[in-house]
Design a protein that fits this description.
six-stranded mixed sheet, globular, ABC_transporter-like_CS
Length: about 260
């Protein structure tokens, strides 16, 4: 595995029954970058994320994270690797019966020797880092707006000071101002915490404002990857329509106005 890569996926095949989702998929996440993963609905972006974090077992291929073969690990070695990444699922995946602080404390409970008071304080810190007010700590997920729930999910993903963060459609369902604030937060956290970020999104504004590189899923694999400037040169019909369609033009024009 190249030292510059924190994730290397090679020859991935995932399949549910007869339905092949990925076939011969290769993907790299470089250290310190924000990689936007895009593709049409159902092309397997979330399945790829879940495969990398070991929730779905591939039929073939290899997935290496931070130099370790995810499929070959079990027990303590597996748990040690899992502590080095954080995942924010699409809906936040918070426990509804726990407050925001208690949700963020869940991963911290795995840290040996961490006193209750320190765990509570650390959870509060992560909630603040995710841009939530302190009083949100005592709220239940049902008492929060969708945007606040996403931030709570992000706080939980950051709980163990991860090196890699996986974000599944972090701005979906947010109003444009909330989505823009979330984009800025992702970049600020990457810079402050030296994170590598695997970001599944449909949001063209996010691609423009956050992502160092983009990987396009199509035809069961990563069809192409590169910078936004490189994506704009790709002639494949879906890629061209995606990056040059009306919504793409709107995102580019608002980006230019913001510069
Ligand atoms: N547990 C599962 N069992 C069977 N099929 C599944 C399972 N999870 C996902 N799939 C199928 O795999 C395909 C890819 O799903 P996935 O959720 O990764 O798509 P996606 O690219 O993230 O889509 P979207 O952009 O709409 O969120 C879909 O056809 C989906 O129905």
């Amino acid at each position: 595995m190249s030292a510059a890569n924190v994730i290397e996926v090679r020859g991935l095949r995932t399949q549910f029954g007869d339905h092949v989702v990925h076939d011969g998929l290769d993907l790299d996440l470089r250290r310190g970058e924000i990689l936007g993963v895009v593709g049409g609905s159902g092309t397997g972006k979330s399945v790829l994320l879940r495969s990398i974090v070991g929730l779905i077992r591939p039929r073939a291929g290899s997935i290496s994270v931070l130099g370790r073969d995810v499929g070959a690990l079990s027990g303590a070695a597996r748990e040690a690797l899992e502590r080095r990444w954080g995942v924010m699922f699409q809906d936040g995946a918070l426990f509804s019966a726990l407050t925001v602080r208690e949700n963020v404390e869940v991963p911290l409970r795995a840290v040996p020797g961490l006193a209750d008071a320190d765990r509570r304080a650390l959870a509060g810190l992560k909630v603040s880092m995710a841009g939530l007010p302190v009083k949100a700590c005592d709220a239940f997920p049902s008492e929060l707006s969708g945007g606040m729930r996403k931030r709570a999910g992000l706080a939980r993903a950051l709980a163990l000071d991860p090196e890699i963060v996986f974000l599944d459609e972090p701005t979906a369902g947010l109003d444009p101002i909330g989505a823009d604030a979330f984009d800025r937060l992702i970049v600020a956290l990457r810079d402050a915490l030296n994170l590598s970020v695997f970001l599944v999104t449909h949001d063209l504004d996010t691609l423009h404002s956050c992502c160092d590189r983009i990987a396009v899923l199509a035809e069961k694999r990563v069809l192409t990857s590169g910078t936004m400037a490189q994506m704009l040169q790709i002639q494949h019909p879906w890629v061209h329509e995606y990056f040059h369609g009306p919504r793409a033009r709107a995102a580019m024009s608002s980006r230019r106005k913001g510069d």
